[in-house]
Amino acid sequence: MRRPVESGEYTSRKFGRACRKLGVFQSMGRVGSCFDNAVSEAFKSVLKVEYVHRHIFRTRAEARLRIAIWITDFYNARRLHSVCDYKSPIDYEREYWAGLTVELAA
Fold first, then answer.
1. Which residues contact 31 (CB under 8 A, 6 or more apart)?
2. How confident is the model over 6-48, as pLDDT tens digits?
3. How far is CA 9 from CA 5, 15, 53, 64, 87, in A?
4. C-beta neighbour count of 75 within 10 angstroms
5. Residue 98 in contact with residue 91, Cβ under 8 Å?
6. Reduced to 3 states, what is the DSSP secondary structure of residue 74?
7. Has this prediction a pTM greater than 0.85?
8. Which residues touch 78 (CB under 8 Å, ≥6 apart)?
9. Per-domain boundaries in the chain
């Protein structure tokens, strides 16, 4: 049986060093901040409402595969996001890097 993970484990120096070694940037705010998980919670809500609750999966493996495909082929590539000026994340990022390249070249 797994023991529950305590939040202190993610704020320890050892964990921080492991993250830095792997090139992972921790995203943590102050304790009790309501904004810590806002983005991931919003994504999970959209995933459940727009996809998971509308489909039946025979196995967990099928669910994982179909959800991964939905994320890459629809959510990131075609779904319009208000935070991205009503563009898909891929189009928004493409425009961002193109604009940055032009700006740096000037």
1. 7
2. 556 666 888 888 888 988 877 666 566 666 677 788 899 999 9
3. 7, 7, 33, 28, 38
4. 20
5. no
6. helix
7. no
8. 88
9. 37-75, 80-106
